[in-house]
Design a protein that fits this description.
The structure holds 2 protein chains of 2 kinds.
Chain A lengths: L6 H13 L1 H11 L5 H7 L2 H9 L3 E2 L9 E2 L1 H14 L7 H11 L2
Antiparallel strand pairs in A: 1-2
Helix pairs in contact in A: 2-4, 2-5, 2-6
Chain B lengths: L30 H4 L12 H6 L3 H11 L5 H7 L2 H9 L3 E2 L2 E3 L2 E4 L2 E2 L1 H14 L6 H11 L2
Antiparallel strand pairs in B: 1-4, 2-3
The chains are: A mainly alpha, B mainly alpha.
Protein name (chain A): MarR family transcriptional regulator
């Protein structure tokens, strides 16, 4: 059985995610299909895209038909992010703000 | 003045001299031998054409995912359920995360699926000037 994290453990995890929210924003944008450079620069920054690429979360575009793509490890990271943040966005105002900042259209 | 070889003293051609110049079957490998064999023309019933035309509905799913139609309400309209199930079973695509009415993470093109699709694009691109090959291309990439 998995032990539920204590409030302080969860607070530390959320603070770590808050610091990296720009990279998760990029992963989310590409996962939902906005992988074209024009959309990424409009909704995020190329700096965060490069950070996501150096972490191996994002594959480089090949042609106009093949924009930036989320890799399997990027998908795992994003799913973990949603498990931590989305489940608590109803009760924790910090999580709610973080969820809003990353998933805003 | 050329010397006419004497029939009794002529060297046996297969026993000395340079191997590739003896004229027998044995010779050194030439540069030409290392070149790949040309696959021949691509026709409707050739093996290469059949491999390009293999499982187009799944390739269409992969193509739509790669071009950004990842939300279920987009992909489900553009592709067939059978093709999506086959792509998931073969590990080329991952299903969405979350409840059907509250999807958190949309469909995902896996690394294997991306490699598969890029391999197909690489194989079909040199032949797209042929009308029957271009028909395959349009089946997959049609919007």
């Amino acid at each position: 059985m998995v032990r539920k994290p204590t409030a302080t453990e969860r607070g530390a995890a959320v603070a770590a995610l808050e610091k990296e929210q720009a990279v998760y924003r990029v992963a989310y944008l590409i996962a939902r299909g906005d992988g074209r450079p024009a959309e990424l620069t409009r909704l995020s920054t190329m700096d965060s895209v490069m950070q996501a690429m150096s972490r191996g979360w994002v594959a480089a575009p090949i042609t106009a038909g093949f924009p930036y793509q989320l890799t399997d490890s990027g998908r795992v990271a994003l799913a973990r992010w949603f498990r931590i943040v989305a489940d608590y966005s109803g009760v924790d105002p910090v999580c709610a703000a973080l969820y809003e900042a990353v998933t805003t259209p | 003045m050329t010397e006419i070889p004497d029939a009794t003293t002529a060297p046996k051609p297969h026993t000395d001299g340079i191997a590739s110049m003896r004229g027998g079957f044995a010779r050194h490998a030439l540069v030409r031998d290392a070149l790949p064999v040309s696959p021949g023309p691509l026709t409707r019933d050739s093996e290469a054409f059949k491999r390009l035309a293999d499982d187009l509905p799944v390739r269409r799913v992969l193509w739509m995912l790669a071009s950004g139609w990842t939300w279920p309400w987009l992909l489900d309209d553009a592709t067939t359920p059978a093709a999506r199930n086959r792509a998931i079973r073969r590990g080329l695509m991952a299903p969405p995360v979350g409840e059907p009415d509250a999807v958190l993470v949309p469909y995902h093109l896996t690394d294997a699926g991306r490699a598969e699709l890029l391999n197909w694009v690489e194989r079909i691109t040199p032949h797209r000037h042929l009308p029957e090959v271009d028909a395959l291309w349009r089946v997959v990439t049609w919007k």
